[in-house]
Amino acid sequence: MSNYKELVDQHKDRFINELFELLRIPSVSADPKYKEDVLRMAAAVAASLKQAGAENVEVCPTPGYPIVYGEKIVDASLPTVLVYGHYDVQPADPIDLWSSPPFEPVIKDGKIYARGSCDDKGQMFMHVKAFELMMQSGALPCNIKFMIEGEEEVGSSNLDAFLAANRERLKADCVLVSDTSMIANDIPSITTGLRGLSYVEVEVTGPNRDLHSGVYGGGVANPVNVLCEMIASLKDGNKKITIPGFYADVIELGADERRLIAAAPFDEKEYMRELNIGAVEGETGYTTVERTSVRPTLDVNGIWGGYTGEGAKTVLPSKAYAKISMRLVPNQDPDKITELFKTHFESIAPASVKVEVRPHHGGHPAVTPVDSVEYQAAALAMEQTFGKKPVPARGGGSIPIVASFERILGLKTVLMGFGLDTDDIHSPNEHYGVFNFLKGIETIPYFHAHYAALKKRS
Ligand code: BES
Ligand code: MN
Ligand code: MN
Q1: Separation of 141 CA from ligand 3 center, angstroms?
Q2: Nearest C-alpha to atom 20 of ligand 1 is from which residue?
């Protein structure tokens, strides 16, 4: 088999330059202002797949942004890997906190700074370049299909229908995704589960108009105050979520699983230092790693109302708003949790205000097996290129499509990500290590080789 380390080394400058071209396209799916850019990005992904040697490349329309498909079938009797990634990115806001413009990639201290550098353009593109190298060296060990979507960051709402309508075209033996992180560059890990998501926006209305806070203050409910009290009541003194029935379907981990989680390297002091916080916080009875991976959460993602401009304005606002996310774990159902939230939140509203709860996108949690052929192939590939066996670790983020692959196509996913939790995805100054980008390209061909070999044996 080719020496992929050498091959990557030969082509690395070109690979980075090509990634930079993609990073310059502001494919923000959440903001309609970027519609033309998102579409331009889809076309660029399709072109890169074609250039690398993919066939039947198609920019498939959906009611939202298109899904880019491409494939290389070398032999119908060989196994087929479906590679999934996303070409859309989160908004770059707040822009003034970036030390260089979000869509003008630069390398600083060995890291590529740009929105999407890690999540997920950089990680998705590793698969395109690994594919190109395998094609060039005439060593594609299995069939590969690519499905790269443009609405992951807004909930993949058109994906389930696409999967159902394209069962034949998407037929495969497993799904391979690089859209997660590892523990550290010298502690490779494979993500073995993701949390689900329920996301709601709440609107609290007090008086029918903004009022003078002196003339009316003290006699009328202030919706911002009320919203804060309502939100505060959603957790008790042990940071347990108080919504009735919220934990009903949560699968509690056994002692063995908890021991395994505790065995994975984690330095809490360093975690606090790196975030510049004086203490961690979370549900009583669970460790930080458990709180951020296998336990559900409830967090305010944004809150506003009243006057937030320069200086002081004395006003008692008419309305207050918040965006609230709940990360879910097996076997919580996002629709059921959204309903529980809505019922509870409406029930705790005092008579002095009106409350409206508007659900946004959601997603099912997922666990991926560690005894599968695809997990073993990923573990062997990482061991080969990192010189160390990867650690299995549950992830705290969400990729709702993983549950859909299983439910609609009956496919298991392996989450072989190369990012780091400290890459600041979704935040200002998102970055991705050049080491990680190149290591990913080097590792992926070994995944395909091990997968094909293990499948032949099984
Ligand atoms: N790639 C992330 C998910 C992720 C990041 C998983 C790091 C594990 C480790 C993905 O792009 C993402 O951001 N997903 C959203 C969910 C979606 C429904 C908006 C998330 O987790 O907030
Ligand atoms: Mn992602
Ligand atoms: Mn993301």
Answers
A1: 30
A2: 398
